[in-house]
Structures
1.
Amino acid sequence: MFNIFATQTVRFLPRFYPDILWHKPAQEKELYITIDDGPTTQCTGKLAEILEKFGAKATFFLIGQNVVAEPGLVRELKSAGHTLGQHSHSHPNAWQLPKEQMMAEMNKATQILEEVVDEPVRWMRPPYGRFTPAMRKWCIENEQKLVMWDLLPADYMATVSEKDISRHICQFVRPGSIVVLHDNPKVFHKTPEALYSVLATLSAVGWQFRAL
Ligand SMILES: [Zn+2]
């Protein structure tokens, strides 16, 4: 139930946080897939292959430390036409961190990613989806859009199966939805298969998959 609850709850939030993106205005069957926590050698390439098979573009929110470890993967994502954003340097919980440290995390992740892709970073996803007023202000000042979601299939939860992930997305998707998936060790064994199933099911009924 957790994931359904999460998806339904976030639909009330945009009116309180107009600076944050929860959902893209869209009339057509357009889904925005976002993938957090990479790049990882075990999963990111697999997801990119599946996306390519369906002509799908996505947005990857990358952890600075992982960018340092796998800059080649980052360049591959960029040249495949995906959008890249930063997801902090070491994935801390902003609700438990002094704000100066969180700003340093975002500055460092941005600088590292910009050095690898040679263009400005324009998108930010807070680790665990936990944002603060200081982070919102930082994003505005640094011309990065803080991106949340309206679809959270909770692929990172041990009790959520590959079938649960795809069912959740296919059941709740609406035009302009932003869905969160991951490419971290918790999901290596299920998210690629779930993504394949979502792309196959939804593309058969006219959905397109866009990068932010
Ligand atoms: Zn994350």
2.
Amino acid sequence: MKQLIKTDYMFKGDIEEGITQDKFILVENGTIREIIDNSGVIPEADEIIDARGLKVFPGFIDLHVHLSATAGSNLAQSIVEKNEYSALRALHYAKKSLNAGFTTLRDLGSNGYQIIALKEAIRDKWVKGPRILAAGRPLTETGGHGDSPFSNGRVIDGPVEATKAVREQIKAGADVIKIHVSGGGTSPHDNPLEPQLNKDEIDAIVKEAHSKFRKVAAHAQSNAGIRNAAASRVDTIEHALFLDDITCNVIRNNNLIIVPTMVSPIMTSLKGKDAGVPEWAIRKASEAVEPHSKSVKMAKKNGLKIGFGTDAGTPFNFHGNNGKEFEILVGSGDLTPLEAIYAATGIASEALGPSYKVGKILPGFNADMVFVEGDPIDDIVVLTKPSNIKRVLLGGIDVDIK
Ligand SMILES: [Zn+2]
């Protein structure tokens, strides 16, 4: 099955190259085969897709979601409900995100293995949904960010347990390992400014995960926690709230990617009070907004790679509204619109690693694409409105937008 997509405006996911015009994309059995100038010889195809007049981007990647979480105000919901139930609901959330243009989702932790099961059911074609990478249970120290009345992480103390916990996640089918190296916003008894897990524990996790070809994503808010994790060469620094220039250097020298998830504390601080989110969680979120903005600006100034993640599932941070992060990266993080889109395409692709052929419109990559009405380079807000997402291809096949 050959498809030919005609474009007059395309971003391939490469910021050096920028926007290209008047290209044809040849897709064969769901994989991009060739990019052709429209002045050259036009190959035969079974289907012609005319995308001229729309802006074509690689399918967006959200590097940080929690499909098991509802975005509601009841932080304990995921503890009291069955994992089997949240797995079924997660399929609904995954489809909403797909329809919004997010063809790949990286789920960074749930109370069990339900999102791994969802990923496998989609892979085996029992149900339709986006590409998913899933972490299983996050690794956290006793009393850490993932060990509270609101979170059932895999508790580890010491390098031996750390190694074993990585192996457990991989045995369950995890694609990526999630760890908590600092306090956080939704844990009542810790402080975002404190580091969690010792350096020898983080070292053990990274060694074991990398030996099994898994990336490590570290929830890291405090500067000390970020620095520990960066020095241990985790792969992505999630949240990256309290950066300074020295820590930026460690991150850059190790060629790591930060995933700020700026939308998450903003939504909790804006909407949490009326909805009954606990006071302490609103306070932590509110205290994060300003440092977050400073940190992302500092990261940009220091030349760090910035990836796109939303932490969707946290209070009022709804699955399917993932595009909101584009607007905030530009408005509060001082990224250009193209840099924000690059965060969700080329950079996010690099964060997943070379075995995942997503996030770029290049030969050999999956034909995951988003066709957008309006010009997000002129006005990034275009990407926050699902109605501007006119067509989404997942492996060359149309997804059900409505
Ligand atoms: Zn998260």
